[in-house]
């Protein structure tokens, strides 16, 4: 089985006392983080890791699904440190998901897995029609040691920089017509926008 890693190490300062991953998905009944875990398990990812950083109790209090928990005690070192904690000691490919990523349908996630296994690539990720995207990101087993070996103090200790070092053959980017990441899920207007986007891909 391939693992899935949900990165939830950020401050989420604008969301107030309630973490954005704890908010209820309109018309669903589940909160955002439970929905993510359910979809990842349906797509065949196991185990599912939740990596926390700042104020972990906020998000752990609303997790009602079975997931392995890891905590980044070096969260102040930046997002790349949270990624390295999630990838540490994995024995196979892994799907990396930011906590505010809208996951595509299960069949599309399974396609990511097949490509990562069927080809000799380092990473597979989506790209929308505007050239943006990047999550969820399927990381191959062969690329894991390189990511974990990057010094946190280095200028290129960023996932986008590391992806930039890969050739087009090593990094497959699949076309996708929707935005998969929400940088803000804090206000009523932002959640209404998220609901419309969710409906468009479900």
Automatic annotation (TrEMBL):
Keyword Magnesium tagged: yes
Q: Which domain of life is it from?
A: Bacteria
InterPro entries attached here? Answer: MobA-like_NTP_Trfase, Nucleotide-diphossugar_trans
Query: Looking at the Swiss-Prot or TrEMBL record, what is one Pfam family this protein matches?
Result: NTP_transf_3
Q: Where is the MobA-like NTP transferase domain?
A: 4-153
Q: Which Gene Ontology molecular function entries are recorded, alphabetically?
A: nucleotidyltransferase activity
Q: Which UniProt keywords apply?
A: Magnesium
Q: Report TM segments.
A: none
PANTHER family hit by this protein: MOLYBDENUM COFACTOR CYTIDYLYLTRANSFERASE
Q: Report what the protein is called.
A: MobA-like NTP transferase domain-containing protein
